[in-house]
Amino acid sequence: MQSATSAPHGSAPVRPAGAHRAPGRSVGSYLAGGLANLLAAGGVVAVGLVLAAVTMNITLIMFKTGSMSPTIPAGSVAVVKQIGADEIRVGDVVTVDRPGRLPVTHRVIEVHPQAPGEALIQMKGDANPNPDPGMYRVESVRKVLWSVPGLANAIVWAGNPLVLGSITLLAAVGVLWTFWPGRDEAEAVAEDEDDDEVAR
Predict the structure, then answer these.
(1) CA-based nearest residue to 192, from 18, 22, 15
(2) Which residue(s) pair with 119 in the sheet?
(3) Which end of the chain is more exposed for a tag (fewer CB within 10 A), N or C?
């Protein structure tokens, strides 16, 4: 008895629709996929930082000097949050903006409340022998929540236009490489088209 799926005598056997070799992936496609995933993770982090900056007044600052060493050495990046004068406590490491001068980030050693929403604070760098000259009258400061040593150099390097352009180009190539059909995939499509022709 002849099976219902057997081909007529003399004709080529008919493969079931959709049956073809499983497409393989090259090492390059795995590397490109890993690069795409890494860039996607970086994008998620960037979006998270933007949302934090907008909703919680959280930003980043870089330490160019070692006045807060060894707690926060030069080249560190710190996450800071803006707080009001009435939230400042002795022992906090805060950034104070100074009109016409660079901001200063030191440890608070004295707090003297003034009018509502205002305070006079005395600060000192952990590595400095003496307190900062004079006191700072503030309504708000940026409090250091945590810091990462050595990250500032990487951020400055990544901010170079040549580096940014190279990263963008690599990302584009990685995405194209990931989604470009390989030889096995093209053969699989061709086989599916042949199956459709036989089925007709």
Answers:
(1) 18
(2) 113, 138
(3) N
Check: CB of residue 66 under 8 Å from CB of residue 138.
no
| Ranges assigned E (strand) in the chain | 58-62, 77-84, 93-98, 101-113, 119-124, 136-138, 140-148
Q: Please tell me whether residue 191 adopts helix, strand or coil conformation.
A: helix
pLDDT, tens digit (0-9, with 9 covering 90-100), for 13-65: 555 554 544 455 566 666 666 666 666 565 555 555 556 555 667 888 889 88
* Whole-angstrom distance, CA of residue 54 vs CA of residue 75: 25
CA distance 108 to 93: 6
DSSP 129-149: SSPPSS-EEESEEEEEEEEET
